[in-house]
Design brief:
The longest helix has 18 residues, at about 65-85. The N and C termini lie far apart (about 40 Å). The chain has about 210 residues and is an alpha+beta fold. Helix content is about 35%, strand content about 10%.
């Protein structure tokens, strides 16, 4: 059964709050030049080195401010309320967390997560089945990593992501094929680490 970020077991994970800096990814990961924790950057480099020739990781987002996280939660929750006007607050919280994490456990706010895809030597995105950030409603569930009904190329590319990123110590959020994290509360729960490494991060960047 899929564990969602709204699960109380995620919130209950203690956090070390390591004072590890945010670093800016270089241009080999695409034009976003996302900010991530240094430990995550090291693991992304390890994963990138395991890709076949001609395929690269493109990171479209890393660290996200608390204000941006709140705005995304509010926007998606409003969409869900319109679609399900009789939904309870508890169910709304659960449904919202399929697509965006509650602020208190958000891996992006900790600088511990990336949204990414695969590109070829020309910088064109490979087929992963849906666009990045497709909601469950927009994609009819195809955004789930293990979704049925995606093509053979998309399945192979998702498997490649799992091999190289999982091999480097990252975990996937199973409702979003593009979301991978290291050191956050969700990672700690899924891997059995017991303690998260990173809490919310400020915007200080390593020199």
């Amino acid at each position: 059964m899929t564990i969602l970020l709204s699960d109380p077991r995620v919130t209950a994970v203690p956090t070390l709050n390591l004072a590890e800096p945010l670093v800016r990814l270089d241009a080999s990961y695409g034009p976003a030049r996302a900010l991530v924790r240094a430990g995550l950057a090291t693991r992304l480099a390890r994963a990138a080195a395991e890709l076949p020739p001609g395929i690269r990781l493109r990171v479209v987002e890393g660290h996200r401010s608390a204000a941006d996280q709140r705005a995304i939660v509010a926007s998606y929750a409003a969409e869900l309320r319109l679609a399900h006007p009789r939904v309870s607050e508890a169910e709304l919280h659960r449904l919202t967390s399929r697509y965006v994490a509650p602020l208190e456990v958000a891996p992006h706010v900790a600088g511990a997560a990336v949204d990414l895809t695969l590109v070829d030597v020309c910088g064109d995105e490979l087929d992963l089945g849906t666009p990045i950030d497709a909601t469950p409603e927009q994609s009819d569930g195809a955004c789930y990593f293990a979704a049925d009904g995606i093509g053979a190329d998309a399945r192979a590319h998702r498997s490649l992501l799992a091999r190289v990123l999982g091999g480097a110590g990252l975990v996937n959020y199973p409702t979003e094929w593009w979301h991978w994290s290291y050191g956050d509360r969700y990672w700690a729960l899924v891997t059995g680490a017991g303690t998260a490494l990173y809490g919310p991060a400020d915007v200080r960047v390593a020199a």
